[in-house]
Specification:
single chain, D-Maltodextrin-Binding Protein, domain 2, 10-stranded mixed sheet, 17 helices, globular
Length: about 450
Amino acid sequence: MEENSMKLKKVASVVLALTMVAGLAACGSSSDGDSKSGDAKTSESSGNGTEKTTLTMWSWSPITRTCDKMIEAFEKENPDIKIEFTYYNYDPEYLSALSAAAASDNLPDIIGLQPGSLTAQYADYLMDYSSYAQEEWGDNWKDNYPDMIADQIQMGNKPGDEGNYILPVEAQVISIVYNKNVFEKYGLDIPKTYDEFKAVCKTLNDNGVAPLFFGGANGWQCVNLFTMLCSQLDTTIFDKAQSGEIKWTDPAMVEAMSNFKLMFDDGIVQTGAMSADANTNGTPAFVSDSAAMMALGSWWCQEFTAEDPATTIADWDFGFFYLPAVGTAKNPATPVGGIDFGYGITKNCKNPDAAWKALKSFSAGAGIQACVDDVNNLPAFKGIEPKNTELNKDLVEQYNSFSEDLNSAMNQRIGEPTIETALQNALAGVGSGELTPEQGCQAVQDAQDAL
């Protein structure tokens, strides 16, 4: 939130990361005040005469209100450990802060990560926590996660590196979320085919309502939509292109890129989509009935637990469906997703035992339970469910559906930072009409060939 908007622009790979930034993307679109902040290690009394261990932690996720609850739950069970948390917006603030801190050897004890490119960039600065996980959960500890999430833990590792650096905290599933009020107002049904989808969007456009509001200025929005389109053709091609098993110029990849462009040409997304921001432009339009649909993750559920939410949110007038087969595709999109975010322990950490206690809580203990009760997103660890009895019934049903779909979701993540940049730039070019689908795919392949 995964968003947390990611502007589409060429950035140095040292500050690149996949999707979901402070706002909609995968990790929070709610507006929250500053959380606990500070990155200096300090000591203070725990109340029983002993000194507390202070751990510094930086991240963009979860959103601040949820993170405060997560940290509070951990500290309640571990009164001898204090977490000093600094919250950042994802891009560019968090990425820039990490880059600067790494360059000056001043990273905090714990950092927020996404699987693939972001973890790969900082792997040399991170501790391999494998021995802790094995001691805690046994040699088969990854069985505690759905298969795709377990695979994403080492995504982007250098050849031969069997280390584990990101411990998954939350996961997500991407779908098309729709505003029920808008659909009811115009007598619309959930589209099952592309022709039906075009007809729905035409009605919305004719009435001045943004159909599928698309934040094309956010790289994560472009990649998420593209992975949905890939899944409609073959659930394996996205990973095969990353691994080099097929080229990015493979006919199937060009077809997916062509279908991406078709959604602009056919009025599925709103006019001016490539300059729109999903968080600052999309959210207000969506909750005020000015936009009918958005491509969002299960993190959208977190809006319900915000303070003083809009009426549309308080009544939970939202549903979801998976993208109908677009253009030449024969099948609707499958669930797409994976790890939203996790945490890693840096080599700067002077007390890794305490840091592991925090990560264990945030992934599989009281910390993640607090997040799930706030429906911030889905738990990556199996067997954790919301205990919040004040949640809307429809919301709970949707949340449970996302949790079930996570088990069969297609990977949305990219392991190599250079490829992520190239794909985002290619999608921006194709969406704006500056590149043909063939040229866009060739640009990504050129980047892969240069590795």
